[in-house]
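Try it yourself: sequence plus nickel (II) ion, in.
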Amino acid sequence: MALLPILEYPDARLKRIASPVTEFTPAIKKLVDDMADTMYDAPGIGLAATQVNVHKRIVVIDISETKNDLKVFINPQIVMADGEIVGEEGCLSVPGYYDTVKRASHVVVRAQDALGKTFELEATDLMAVCIQHEMDHLIGTVFVDHLSQLKQIRVKTRMKKRLRETERA
Ligand code: GNR
Ligand code: NI
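Structure, out:
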């Protein structure tokens, strides 16, 4: 069990574009395990490698109440998206801030598992939202980037204040 530090908005490293995983090595398997540990400990329902400063296309998600339904998405691609859902989102990289974002309500994602095996998953509602939120991280986008400029400035101000306070504590 290993917990990884999570980058916090507006850290510039959250803007990096992740690269595809080309070799499914034991190190990738270990990273997936550590990402899952970090997500469960936070606690959160998803985590993208970008958030732990690893710029590879790797996402873990578990939206179950019982926290025993881990899904791993390596090199994920959305192959179908339709419908609309407006839901409240939060992010482990933007602690304490929640706001609504419009997303597709129904997606089909194609990805590889930790062993490199390709699979497709159809998802709706919260799972669909979470997949889109995590895949955004892989292209350097945080949910705050979908909000108005005014809100983005307010969130940045709030996060910088928080950082000053946590540095003093
Ligand atoms: O834990 C999380 N909850 C959440 C709630 C609504 C929409 C998206 C999410 S993902 C978030 C964890 C996280 O920051 N993943 O990147
Ligand atoms: Ni997030």
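One thing you can check immediately is this: The first strand starts at residue 46 and ends at 48.
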